Amino acid sequence: MKQYVFTILLTAAVAFVLSWAVWRLSLKYKLYPGIRERDVHKTPTPRLGGIAMFIGVVAAFAVSSQHPFFAIIWTQPQQIYALLGATALIVVVGVLDDLWDLDWMIKLGAQFLAAGVIAWFGQLQIYALPLGGMTIFSSWASFTLTVFSIVVVMNAVNFIDGLDGLVAGVCLIANGVFFAYSYMVVRDTGASTFFNLASFIAAVLIGACIGFLPLNWSPARLFMGDAGALMLGLLMACSAIAITGSFDPAIVGDNDSFGRSQLLGAFIPILLPVVVVLLPLLDFGLAVVRRMSKGKSPFSPDRKHLHHRMLDMGHSDRDAVLIFYAWTALVSLSVLLMYIGTTLEWPGDYLFGVLYGVLGIAACLVVTFLPSRRLSAAAAPDPAPAPAPDGAPQTDPAPAQEDAR
């Protein structure tokens, strides 16, 4: 465990120092776009935080290559190189979009290309699903399912990037839970390389989010932009595929330590990687349906995401972010507790996780639909305008929120 803690601290330190450096350089050289019509923030804010997060990730992988504990994930170096190469491609395209607002077709093409590099050259694919020993026999079916899964998760994470600290915090919680799960599976089953790779990626993402969040917390001084959000989505998808897609179905049926509930044991490896990104996936699905039903592109931006709806209900931007944190922790911890309950033979097995989920849902529903600040508060005097970055025009005050996607 101490090796993972070191990885988290190293990534966090590099990401924090470079985030501060990127913020200062962006202000000095005016590397921030103007306010667009769809933006909800009013003060020009740098969007290049994804660069700092990416370098932190690369630094962690570089150090791991020299550490004997992580030698197992380097037994297939082409897999790591493909993963880092695809991530670099996404970050470059994301930076270009953050500076010049690329056409959505270009971004989508780059996403499919990056996912293809991982699936084809890295051979990190969904080969099997641990549900009744289900195996994907066609190599092209495996490749296609993998590519589409990565692209969907990338866009799902990117779509919720609309409020200060939202994506960084949600991904921090999700990867924290996923790291705990993957680490316990290795402990309980003696699983192979793929689980260690999943644990390492989750640890790296935890560190990247911790290092970036101080500059992204409301009021944000730096946004991660498309570069950061797409990178988080890509790596989270890959960590999930490393477990789910390469899970040995025999573990479920033959290894009693995996859990006394065979039904739960069959579903957990599929369920948990999904629930940790449940809110992004839900927001992404609703956005696609909403836009296509109006005859628009599924990637055409609007201001009807879940976090915008909470703002319309009367929540402050910070309260809305905290509610998203609560929902993310609720759904992911519920499934994790079900797994822990079966492996430790708690009374009632997974019922403890179900009870936690039911009580948590009730609490989250209350805070979601009873906002502490009603829309009537809008009649209160406006706060003093926040200072604009050096050289940027002063504009009307508003929370330093991300753009609506």
TrEMBL record:
Compositionally biased tracts (Low complexity)? 391-405
Residue ranges of the TM segments: 6-27, 48-74, 80-100, 112-130, 136-154, 166-186, 192-215, 227-247, 267-289, 320-344, 350-370
The GO terms describing molecular function are: transferase activity
EC number of this enzyme:
2.7.8.-
Q: Where in the cell is it found?
A: Cell membrane
| InterPro entries, A to Z | Glycosyl_transferase_4, PNAcMuramoyl-5peptid_Trfase_CS
Going by the record, the broad EC class of this enzyme is: transferase
* Protein name (database record): MraY family glycosyltransferase
Species whose genome carries this gene: Microbacterium arthrosphaerae
